[in-house]
């Protein structure tokens, strides 16, 4: 699933940003529910906790995507190294000249 999200263009920085935003959204939803709804403190607490539970998921997905990005960079570096080695093998040596 993570590799599919990575191929779709989702990056770890986006997930970290979503995690931070969900923390702010949790505080805002708690504050707004407490002050502007007649349901009381209990409902405000539930809203804040519900939205606040998203943050760890976003951060975990960010870590998984970062690992995928690192794996992708390693693959790219390895492909470049192999290409360099193949070019070196094709180029005749001038050591004896």
From TrEMBL:
Region described as Disordered: spans on this chain: 78-97
Keyword Transmembrane helix: yes
Regions crossing the membrane: 12-32, 47-65
Taxonomy, superkingdom: Bacteria
Keywords: Membrane, Transmembrane, Transmembrane helix
Protein name per the record: DUF2637 domain-containing protein
Lineage of producing organism: Bacteria, Bacillati, Actinomycetota, Actinomycetes, Streptosporangiales
